[in-house]
Amino acid sequence: MNDPTKTASRKWFKMPHTYVILIFLVLVAAALTYVVPAGEFDRVEDAATGKTLVVPKSYHEVDASPVSIVSIPKAIVHGLIDSADVVFFILIIGGTFEIISSTGTIEALTGRVARNFANKGRWVIPIFILLFSVAGFTMGMSTEVMVFVPIGIAVARALGFDALTGTAMVSLGASCGFTAGILNPFNVGLAQAIAEVPMFSGAWLRIILLVCLITVTSLYLVRYAGKVRSNPEKSLVSELEREVETKELDLNKLPRMQLKHYLTLIVVAAGFAALVWGVSKKDWWMEELAALFLTMGIVSGFCAGYGPSRIAAEFVKGAKAITYGALIIGFARGIMVVLDQGSVIDSIVYGLSTLVGELPGPIQVLGMYLFQNVMNIFITSGTGMAVTTMPIMVPLADIIGVTRQTTVLAFQLGDGFSNMILPTSSALMGSLAVSGIPYQKWVKFFWPLMCMWFVIGAVLIVIAHMINY
């Protein structure tokens, strides 16, 4: 029998909208300008690297300039204006990937993998994880992964597995790639831009991270899937499986690769090759990268046989879909605008550095790692968390002797790992909604793997600090 008290409690509490959380944080920031002493560090530009660095032990108090509540709307608008280049960059990427997605190339590629490996049993699991990890570490696939969950479930059931296996090998694959973020402009690229390190630099350690995550995830999921195939009653979603009449997967109904799909893949591969070359050799920044993605989208549309109007329509559709995440950047920037106007950012950093500075080196970076994981509970958007936390963590890292690249690594790990267990994650909840898997069943399945992920992240963070990554 349901407990009416618990039911009423669940109805009473509802996680606020992300924008509400951000505005609340803006209000908290304004309140801090009244209670935190105003102060600042001296800063100098490093002649060798061009980076703006904090001068250690230069903190000093300045005249207080508290921010009134009537100034908050203006601060948010100011944040949007300050973030205009990044906001439009995200909108262009969203439009470009919608054009590419609309061509059916991703579905066709997935279908081909399914046909080629459907009879190879458990090998399908690491192959699917690897395939979707590529989408995760390049185009930042997260919420979009729910579109492919039904295909994963159909393949898994055809092999004697369950819906949980099919959902996991798709969604966890994308999550592994997103967390590693080798060429992900939405989290690593943006965080590195804020930290003033070369965009997508330090990829070698992120590749090692990806290999570790894929290996551990594949072994974990293969072990679970093997138990289910041997004894279907060991499935965590056995009730769901009994409700479904399992049928053999008709591979002929999956999309097949066509000329337009091959051409689109060539365009995307060439685009990312140009991105790597431009960033590493020509110091490309937001303007050049946005132009590259825009070109990639238009050319992909023409390769698919689209006319100009269809390309424009798909672009607008994609930009519209990502507006929510893009505007978060400006709202989050409003927090930093308020703290900056109140001259309390450096005071907060000074307080944190004093606290963290008393700890041993490895503990300091683990503290930064833990901080980012906690922040992800409230701001599940990778871009939003980057612009909220990185401006504070970067000067803190300068003071306590942690490299900026390691600081970015702490951010990306904190941004990625918990997305697959938080009920505020649209990527997770969307995938579970499509698959019909209850949230509590997913948590029971995933929490041991999440603990493994956290340990891997902690080890890599400590290693990165030890080698001055």
TrEMBL record:
Keyword list (alphabetical) reads: Cell membrane, Membrane, Transmembrane, Transmembrane helix
| Name this protein carries in UniProt | Uncharacterized membrane protein YfcC, ion transporter superfamily
Bilayer-spanning residue ranges? 19-36, 123-149, 161-183, 203-222, 262-279, 291-309, 321-339, 377-400, 420-439, 445-467
What is one cellular component GO term in this UniProt entry?
plasma membrane
Under the heading PANTHER family, the entry gives: ARGININE REPRESSOR (PTHR43652:SF6), BASIC AMINO ACID ANTIPORTER YFCC-RELATED (PTHR43652)
**What InterPro entries does this protein map onto?**
C4_dicarb_anaerob_car-like, DASS-Related_Transporters
Stated membrane topology is: Multi-pass membrane protein
Organism's domain of life?
Answer: Bacteria
State its location(s): Cell membrane
